[in-house]
């Protein structure tokens, strides 16, 4: 189905759903970018089931996974334009609109689930305010497993990273490679095995999920569990669609969203453990970063945070201050 055809179908569905009165049953279509086997999608399906049960079937969400209704790049605007009432996107995809949306993807700012949770608590009010101005309401957010280092040889001294060809796929990973003294090399996810086998790249940073799915043990031998950043997916609802619900349904949506967020973070932690175990089972050596490497990565985190603050200004500083206060408490 073409984009135009999908939009026409979705608009017709949305018109019916958004036009339903507060006391009438409503059917919502929800596009997501990821396949049914991905834990984010499984969590969303559970959210839909729970909400259907909580409203006695009066709010029924149909999940359209794997970009089947709208592509990832289209989902946010589809929700804004009321082509669908609700959708899921990667939060940092909006960083080109405002740097606040990319705070969870600053390398080595929040390098554990506890730190990622503190950062989300600190940044959520600003994220919600900016999206509210666009007619969108935040329901919940769930992180991906942390991004970690994959290498062909053991690295304990940061000087060993110097001169390595380092896979880059966006501006942030290019900058990270530069600060490590490595040579950034653009490689798309599907080309990773070939790039390593031909020697075009010698190191990369990605999640244990991506590594396990790509059978990284076929082309690298070492995994250093840096959890450099834990990017989040965010579930958004059109504010007008939400306000069209009865008070009871609105409360049910928020209650089930809170449960989905808590459950999703636990699912992400389980995914991390499962995929790291798969990497180890495949023959990779799993390790924590050495003290020297940890210190260098922390320095890089400070540098990249300062560079982000130059873009984000006072608002960004307020988020970082709140984040560090959360860590201290």
Structure summary:
This protein has 329 residues and is an alpha/beta fold. Helices cover 49% and strands 16% of the residues.
What would you say this structure looks like, in words?
With 329 residues, this protein is α/β, with parallel strands linked by helices. 49% of the residues lie in helices and 16% in strands. The chain has ten helices and eleven strands. It has helices at 3-19, 39-54, 72-80, 113-132, 171-180, 192-197, 208-213, 239-243, 247-281, 291-328; strands spanning 26-31, 59-64, 86-90, 136-143, 148-151, 165-168, 183-186, 203-206, 222-224, 232-238, 285-287. The strands form four sheets. It has a four-stranded mixed sheet. Helix 5 links the parallel strand 6 (165-168) and strand 7 (183-186). Helix 2 packs antiparallel against helix 9, helix 4 crosses helix 10 (291-328) and helix 5 packs across helix 10 (291-328). The longest helix has 38 residues, at 291-328. It starts with a helix and ends with a helix. The model is unreliable at 1-5 and 11-22 (pLDDT under 50).
Instruction: Spell the H/E element sequence.
Output: HEHEHEHEEEHEHEHEEHHEH
The rounded Rg comes to 21 Å
Shape: globular
Helix content: 40-55%
What composes the largest sheet?
Answer: 4 strands, mixed
Give the integer mean of the pLDDT values.
93
- Strand order, biggest sheet? 8-5-9-11
| Fraction of residues in β-strands | 15-25%
User: Which runs of at least 5 residues are low in confidence (pLDDT < 50)?
Assistant: 1-5, 11-22
Number of strands: 11
- In whole angstroms, how far apart are the ends? 52 Å
Query: Helical stretch count?
Result: 10
Question: Structural class, judged by helices and strands?
Answer: alpha/beta
């Amino acid at each position: 189905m073409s984009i135009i055809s999908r939009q026409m179908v979705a608009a017709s569905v949305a018109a019916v759903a958004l036009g339903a009165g507060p006391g009438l049953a409503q059917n919502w279509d929800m596009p997501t970018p990821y396949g049914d086997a991905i834990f984010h999608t499984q969590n969303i399906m559970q959210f839909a089931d729970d909400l259907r049960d909580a409203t006695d079937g009066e709010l029924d969400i149909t999940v359209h996974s794997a970009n089947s209704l709208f592509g990832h790049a289209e989902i946010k605007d589809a929700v804004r334009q009321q082509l669908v009432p609700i959708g899921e996107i990667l939060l940092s995809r909006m960083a080109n609109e405002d740097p606040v949306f990319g705070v969870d993807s600053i390398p080595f700012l929040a390098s554990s689930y506890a730190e990622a949770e503190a950062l989300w608590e600190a940044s959520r009010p600003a994220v919600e305010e900016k999206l509210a101005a666009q007619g969108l309401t935040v329901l919940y957010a769930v992180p991906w497993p942390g991004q970690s280092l994959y290498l062909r040889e053991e690295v304990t001294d940061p000087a060993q990273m110097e001169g390595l060809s380092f896979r880059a796929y966006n501006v942030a990973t290019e900058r990270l490679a530069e600060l490590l003294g490595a040579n950034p090399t653009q490689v798309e996810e599907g080309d990773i095995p070939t790039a390593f086998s031909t020697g075009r790249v010698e190191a990369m940073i990605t999640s244990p999920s991506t590594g396990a799915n790509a059978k990284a043990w076929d082309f690298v031998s070492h995994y250093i569990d840096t959890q450099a950043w834990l990017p989040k997916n965010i579930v958004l609802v059109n504010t007008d669609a939400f306000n069209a619900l009865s008070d009871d349904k609105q409360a049910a949506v928020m209650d089930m969203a809170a449960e989905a967020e808590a459950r999703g973070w636990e699912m992400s932690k389980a995914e991390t453990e499962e995929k790291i175990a798969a990497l180890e089972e495949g023959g990779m050596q799993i390790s924590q970063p050495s003290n020297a490497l940890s210190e260098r990565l922390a320095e890089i985190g400070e540098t990249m945070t300062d560079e982000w603050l130059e873009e984000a200004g006072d608002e960004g500083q307020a988020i970082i201050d709140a984040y560090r206060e959360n860590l201290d408490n």
